[in-house]
Specification:
It is built from six helices and eight strands, in the order αβαββααβββαβαβ. The strands form two sheets. It has a five-stranded parallel beta sheet with strand order 2-1-4-7-8. The mean pLDDT is about 95. By secondary structure, the protein is α/β, with parallel strands linked by helices.
């Protein structure tokens, strides 16, 4: 509801909006729920640009591909211009992993400035893994420490598939709002470490910060050990 009402309000004022999507089951479920909201009819989709925080480097028709999941969940059923959907490269596009990562950095730069060669996402949606990874930034890996590039090629990912493309932390943290989703008892440890302010290198979710707001959406299982005073029931 929050995502749909924000988009309807912003586009209703003629504002161009940039959203970074997340993948996995949570990403698809969120988009399906958004599309089912009656308020979605009030969104001017021509003003919304969709990006991804990471992508599995697999063929375009592979069901593991985040962009394919998003298209099936929402994007193929709304009148969003094709030019507003900024997919990362696929393994069958004829580019190497490194070239595909560089191409996405170039695409980001088209909507940025010389000082910030990427767009400022109005909302950056992130799933959080049991190991507290966000996007394809995994704990104690070199990608989480990159600050001089917008994208990174990931090899030998600890979570399959092994090859991925990810946004880097500076791009994520330039977002106006970062919304993270954690569900299930296996995310309780990640949530606790993130709330405790652990090192972002070991707990990437702890280092994800929106310029204006950072919100963690959790279910009861993930938040079982969180003190009540830290939870906004609304």
């Amino acid at each position: 509801t929050r995502l749909v009402t924000r988009l309807a309000s912003w586009t209703g004022k003629g504002r161009t909006v940039h959203i970074s999507l997340t993948g996995g089951s949570m990403g698809g479920a969120s988009l399906r729920a958004a599309g089912a909201r009656p308020e979605a009819a009030d969104i001017d989709w021509s003003l919304v640009h969709f990006w991804w925080s990471d992508e599995r480097f697999v063929p375009r028709t592979d069901p593991d591909r985040n962009a394919l999941q998003a298209r099936e969940a929402l994007l193929d059923s709304i009148p969003v211009p094709a030019a507003n959907v900024h997919e990362m490269g696929a393994s069958d596009d004829g580019l190497s992993l490194d070239a595909a990562a560089a191409a996405y950095a170039d695409e980001l730069a088209r909507y940025g400035t010389p000082d910030q060669p990427w767009p400022t996402f109005d909302i950056c949606l992130l799933g959080v893994g049991p190991d507290a990874h966000i996007a394809s930034l995994f704990p104690d890996r070199p990608e989480i420490r990159l600050t001089d590039v917008a994208t990174a090629a990931v090899r030998d990912s600890p979570k399959p598939p092994p090859e991925r493309i990810t946004l880097t932390r500076p791009v994520i943290n330039s977002s106006t709002r970062v919304w993270m989703a954690l569900t299930g008892a296996d995310k309780a440890s990640a949530l606790g470490l993130a709330l405790a302010g652990a090192s972002y290198a070991g707990v990437p979710a702890a280092g994800a910060k929106g310029r204006k707001h950072t919100v963690m959406f959790v279910d009861r299982a993930a938040a079982a050990d969180v003190p009540d005073e830290l939870i906004d029931r609304d």
